Amino acid sequence: MSDTESTTATDSTLEAKPPGPSGIPIVGSTLSIARDPLGFAETVREYGDVVAYEAFGTEFVAVFDPEIVEQVLVSRSDAFHKGEFETEFGELVASEGVAFTEGERWRRQRTLLQTSFTPDRIQSYADEVVAETARLADGWADGEVVDLRETLSTFTLRVLTRTLFDLTIDDDRAETVRRATRAISSSADPSGFALRSILPSWVPMRSEREYERAMADLSALVSELVADRRAASETGDDLLSLLATAEYPDGTRMSPETVRDQLVTFLFAGHETSATALTFACWLLAGDSSVRSRLDCELETVLEDRDPTFADLSDLTFTEAIVSEAMRLYPPVVGLYREPLETITLGGYRIPAGTTVQLSTYGIHRDGQWWDDPEAFRPTRWLEERDRPEYAYFPFGGGPRHCLGMRFATMELKLALATLARRLEFDRVTASLSPSVGVTLDPGRLEMRVRKRS
Ligand code: HEM
């Protein structure tokens, strides 16, 4: 029987459980993950391409093989659902949001939401991205030291709220949104998850109380916004108006709670992800003068003396290579999670229903089998021909549930990087990176000195 066929638990040809670390009894690998998730992933990698371990009271199987990633996300995606690990987080964040629903409910939502991410819509957001980036860069003084991760996090939130929700960020409403996204980020900290899986569930955690307050305020705000949009004589074409006024084929509308969950989903999925990708890209660029010179050369040739527009995107090939290389080394989403609906074989191993399959984006992106000198920042590799499996690189996932904001994010990252680089250079003040894993791969506090270009 081949690896690509599913099997049932009674099938006598089933292979063995994948190899893996035994962990400390009861607590399993939970504490090791909480202390150092990326280090733990490296340790696990030594056992092979498919590795079993136990953590958070759950059986995990980590996958480091691009062919198996393709099977799980694309060719055998019907045999998997997001599963308990993701759903638990989804329930905390936005159980009705498109990133966490399943089956027909998910399909209906995805079809509706896709209309805000067509190439025409993405094009209409591009000028706003450039204007917002220019405002950011022009607001800095020459020589100023900025916390890049913090600043870019505010920046991508502004971009999202202006483009998708047609809200400006400078008022109390924006602060409510920002507090909620912060609360979501801290709720997903793996050390928080680890504590939660060890402590009894009746022990309230500080971040949970903050979270509940922040989410209650956000719910109230969204109900207000939905009511405003429904009462308006003319509806805008932003995502929030679409969500507030759209009708499903049976004539029903989304409840304010579902609209809230979609909005939270987009904030959660599209804010820190883009911010961390741009932060890592700027930091890597600041450390490599030859990459910087080549970027300057591209910007001078393509843009001469003006800001980029949507029409320039296809010519900004080296800018794109920098973004791709930054997301290869530091994928904002370090791993994807799925659960087989029934017992299945993957890579010749038996994976029981209920196991959490973890597709290791971080591990595969740094695997020497597919990437020469894998730890090096080398954007030119994206301009060279090299045969490698499609899922050796999957920062946006793949298959039917691939990132809905992928085109938006790629446009945003390229235009923002080009707009910043035209105006300034960064010097590293924080000398080295020590990223941690939260909702996204978090670079942490990262100070950079701004040098304005004359
Ligand atoms: C660099 C930036 C980004 C990265 C690396 C990223 C990555 C991802 C990944 C890996 C997934 C798939 C998760 C899975 O299969 O379990 C995903 C899903 C999703 N992303 Fe993104 N994302 C980014 C930006 C955005 C933006 C800007 C938006 C919205 C404006 C967005 C909206 C979504 C949504 C709604 C989903 C769920 C799709 C579904 O389940 O049907 N993302 N993203």
From TrEMBL:
Q: Which GO terms describe its molecular function?
A: metal ion binding; monooxygenase activity
Provide ranges: composition bias, Low complexity.
1-16
Annotated region described as Disordered, given as residue ranges = 1-22
Q: Name one Pfam family in it.
A: p450
Its domain of life?
Answer: Archaea
Task: Tell me the keywords, alphabetical order.
Answer: Heme, Iron, Metal-binding, Monooxygenase, Oxidoreductase
Q: Which InterPro entries does the record cross-reference, listed alphabetically?
A: Cyt_P450 (IPR001128), Cyt_P450_CS (IPR017972), Cyt_P450_E_grp-I (IPR002401), Cyt_P450_sf (IPR036396), Cytochrome_P450_Monoox (IPR050196)
Q: Which PANTHER family match?
A: BIFUNCTIONAL ALBAFLAVENONE MONOOXYGENASE_TERPENE SYNTHASE, CYTOCHROME P450 FAMILY 4
- Give the family from UniProt: Belongs to the cytochrome P450 family.
State the protein's name.
Answer: Cytochrome P450
